[in-house]
């Protein structure tokens, strides 16, 4: 914890709600994480493709990790609070009490998770309308966005639908809990709900898809007061929320971001001077931020709107104010690697050997690959083993959620060598998926020279090197592995007024750690 001599230091808190846990960080004005805490949250999977959470469980975890990171810190030094979260859908009644999103009537399970694919038939009907708003989501809406989920609730849970007071994107639910203000972030409503920064909501879209009830009350249920990410919400932290979070009442609370966008904010604006990178002295538009965790997102910004078939956006000001955002993505990356490795017959042997050598399973696999690669680069080991990685459908650029995964080149061998090879082939397949997305973006007009990686998978050196080799572009890793938390703290820093703009905070608080060059061999 900070020592006495740093009394003048200003601190910002970033809270990040991921798929399986909530994390908080205390971050200083130079973007350094001073304290960090994490707590798991519950996920229910009542049937295939249905994933649910509890907003009460999530908020309780937010309070506990925030209290932990500020323990022993002078409250007067804490200047602002920023939230980011997965783009899951929170449903509450008119008194803000949780409403069931399931047929079992379990009202505490009031969150449909981002990765829930229950609304497949609804999204198919929405896409069949070919409405003009779909041109801003790569031509086809994803089942992971909110309109299909809203339609699913209306058609399958009429009782809940009648009682609904508010539908929140999870990041907006958190800023409401903290401030009592139901304002929404431009990031969530533009990226997941079809709002546009110039025209707002499009009545004809909601009428056409059968959700005309949302239009009738002037969008009260889904948000008619929209703020830019990083803007201060209301009068800051309410007395009740301050007590629950262990923070001073009235500190600035920022309009929030979706988790991947917070990661993008935490890395994409970093100062790269002196690293001999192609993006040095080039605008930020030559960079793509890749946030790689359970799934992966590819964030590219442009001065003018670029429509990329199969890639979400262009979204104006949804991540960096004043710039258009395109967002590619892969629905299962960390989840896929885990699935392939843990499902292999040699996994118990791997687990035992990794434990015996006090290494993580992935560190052990990486060194095992180094042992068997002989003199050639490790990538050549999979010359006749190939994975098609769309085990959970393809988000970009094929936008086909019916696609399935595939492995070609299997033999009867069952040992650790084979497990290591299929692990490598899976990572290569994910990197080739990234290359597919980048090529689609470049064909549409993006000029990308450098990748900026953050998130859990960026800690795996093999994953990083394969992305450099397969895309042929240098990969920049941020100094703080927890870039998403830094991104959330940047929002809090902006809301506090300590920085003039998000861009200034990004440059001061985003720091480069390491550069990985492609091996052109």
From TrEMBL:
GO-annotated cellular components: cytoplasm
GO biological process: pentose metabolic process
Keyword DNA repair carried by entry: no
Family membership noted in the UniProt record: Belongs to the FGGY kinase family.
Pfam families named among the record's database cross-references: FGGY_C, FGGY_N
Protein name: FGGY carbohydrate kinase domain-containing protein
CDD domains attached to this UniProt entry: ASKHA_NBD_FGGY_D-RBK (cd07782)
Superkingdom of the organism of origin: Eukaryota
GO molecular function, one term: D-ribulokinase activity
Sorted UniProt keywords: Kinase, Transferase
């Amino acid at each position: 914890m900070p020592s006495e001599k740093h009394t003048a230091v200003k601190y910002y808190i970033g809270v990040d709600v991921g798929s399986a846990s909530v994390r908080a960080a205390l971050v200083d004005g130079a973007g350094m994480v001073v304290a960090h805490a994490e707590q798991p949250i519950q996920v229910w999977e009542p049937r295939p493709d249905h994933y649910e959470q509890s907003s009460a469980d999530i908020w309780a975890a937010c309070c506990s990790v925030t209290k932990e990171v500020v323990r022993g810190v002078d409250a007067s030094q804490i200047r602002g609070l920023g939230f980011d979260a997965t783009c899951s859908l929170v449903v509450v009644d008119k008194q803000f009490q949780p409403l069931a999103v399931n047929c079992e009537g379990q009202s505490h399970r009031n969150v449909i998770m981002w990765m829930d694919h229950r609304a497949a038939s609804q999204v198919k009907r929405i896409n069949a309308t070919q409405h003009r708003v779909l041109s801003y989501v790569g031509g086809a809406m994803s089942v992971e966005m909110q309109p299909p989920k809203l339609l699913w609730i209306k058609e399958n849970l009429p009782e809940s639908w009648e009682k609904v007071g508010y539908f929140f994107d999870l990041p907006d639910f958190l800023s409401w809990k903290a401030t009592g203000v139901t304002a929404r972030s431009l990031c969530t409503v533009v990226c997941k709900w079809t709002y546009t920064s110039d025209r707002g909501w499009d009545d004809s879209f909601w009428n056409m898809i059968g959700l005309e009830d949302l239009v009738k009350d002037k969008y009260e249920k889904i948000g008619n007061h929209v703020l830019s990410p990083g803007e201060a919400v209301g009068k800051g932290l309410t007395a009740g929320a301050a007590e629950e979070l262990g923070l001073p009442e009235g500190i600035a609370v920022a309009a929030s971001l979706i988790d991947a966008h917070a990661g993008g904010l935490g890395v994409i604006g970093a100062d790269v001077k002196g690293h001999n990178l192609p993006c040095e002295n080039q605008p930020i538009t030559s960079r793509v931020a890749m946030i790689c965790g359970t799934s992966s997102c590819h964030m590219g910004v442009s001065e003018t709107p670029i429509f990329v078939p199969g890639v979400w956006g262009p979204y104006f000001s949804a991540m960096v104010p004043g710039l258009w955002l395109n967002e590619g993505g892969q629905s299962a990356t960390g989840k896929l690697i885990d699935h392939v490795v843990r499902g292999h017959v040699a996994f118990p042997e791997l687990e035992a050997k990794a434990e015996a050598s006090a290494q993580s399973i992935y560190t052990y696999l990486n060194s095992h690959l180094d042992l068997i690669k002989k003199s050639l680069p490790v990538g050549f080991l999979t010359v006749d083993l190939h994975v098609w990685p769309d085990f959970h459908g393809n988000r970009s650029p094929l936008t086909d959620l019916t696609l399935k995964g595939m492995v070609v080149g299997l033999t009867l061998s069952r040992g650790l060598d084979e497990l290591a090879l299929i692990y490598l082939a899976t990572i290569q397949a994910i990197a080739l998926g990234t290359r597919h997305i980048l090529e689609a973006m470049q064909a549409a007009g993006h000029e990308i020279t450098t990748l900026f990686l953050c998130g859990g998978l960026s800690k795996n050196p093999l994953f990083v090197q394969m992305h450099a080799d397969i895309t042929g572009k240098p990969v920049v890793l941020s100094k703080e592995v927890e870039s998403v938390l830094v991104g959330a703290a940047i929002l809090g820093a902006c809301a506090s007024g300590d920085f003039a703009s998000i861009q200034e905070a990004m440059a001061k608080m985003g720091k480069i750690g390491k550069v990985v060059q492609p091996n052109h061999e």
